[in-house]
What does this fold into?
Amino acid sequence: MGLFQVRLERRFFLILGLVVITLATGMATGFELFYRLLYILALTILIGFLWSWVDIRALKITVDRRILQARVGDSINESFSATNHSISPKNLLEIEDKSDLPGYFGMTTVNIKPKGHISWDMTFIARKRGLYHIGPVRVSVSDPFTIFSRERYFGDTDELIIFPMIHNIQDFAVPISELSGDGSTRKRTHSVTPQASNIRDYEYGDSLSRVHWKSTARLGKLMSKVFDLGRASEAWIMVDLERNVQSGEMEQSTDEYSVSIAASLSKQYLDLGMPTGLIAYGSERYFLGAETGKAHFDRIMQQLALSDSEGEIPLHTALAREEPIWDHQSSLVVITPSPSENWVTALRELSRQGVKVIVIVIDNQSFGGELNSLDVLAPLNMIGLPTYVVKKDDDFSVSLRSGSTEVDDIVRDSIHSDTTR
It folds into this structure.
């Protein structure tokens, strides 16, 4: 049936004031005319109340949300239908699909004939990653005198998750020491490998090849095998989500670009069968160990979708905290719009320890920010770390192409500018 709410309009209080004045005047003067006027005002209020009550009960609204998962940039469609079961028309009917999705405006005004039915579609673009709520549908009607307005809510609240956009960056350098082979270091993985080491409770998404049937029969519940990863080379992606270094809005923001690059790199590395880990510092620490497989990619996308750019921890501090994770068999891709040289120093130390480091700098000023992220290019060039620059509206497949000369040109221009001062 839906939830009903009634709201008193300003005209109600005006009429109520007239009722009080008319009643007082009639009692003071005894003129019958004032009592008749009083009856008319009271009848108007009663008719308006009943009219709005009947109107809102005679409505039926349905909504069909076919898509509850999407990526930034995707179009999301909703189908609505409204039926008027009364003999009175519904004019200027206000219908709003409630949502906390950024950039979403789900309000429209429709007219429905007596005993009529209409349907319409609404399409919007997913502009920001995250977990959002959409629905219920709010319908507002008023009586002909605009004394009362009533609201009714139809449907449920659905969760809509927006994942980051994924780009094709196959030409990006793969920072690994080896793609195959066995190593002395063995790590747990969600992938099926020849090395089974333990068992655990079955999780949704596990394939039947993972099920350990003997343990399942003995324990009376599904149990899955835990495998070791027989290779030591790992790729790690670190995303800087510190609040103070971000610029831009919605899909055209430094954090959205950073997360989109992280998602694209994760897909590329995991498609190659490379164990890939994720670290990001937003309002909390987002961490996934280096694993392989499609299920792991889904977990990375989930973490990136839920991540925010409200971090208080600067990149150099985050690197210091995570340093024990990496060794000479690790590769690290750092994505940041920060212009601070502190994190450059931290990466230099990691590089000296044998960690293979690649840096992707998001040009803050191209998003309208005041920070000059390109200040770090010269220091990065001096310590020999491979560096890429991504600007607003860039084609990632070009900016992140192996052998790109843009960074060299920027550094050369910077050096030339310094020598001519």
Q: What stands out?
A: The CA atoms of residues 80 and 277 lie 42 Å apart. Confidence is low (pLDDT under 50) at residues 177-195, 414-421. The first strand starts at residue 3 and ends at 8. The chain has ten helices and 21 strands.
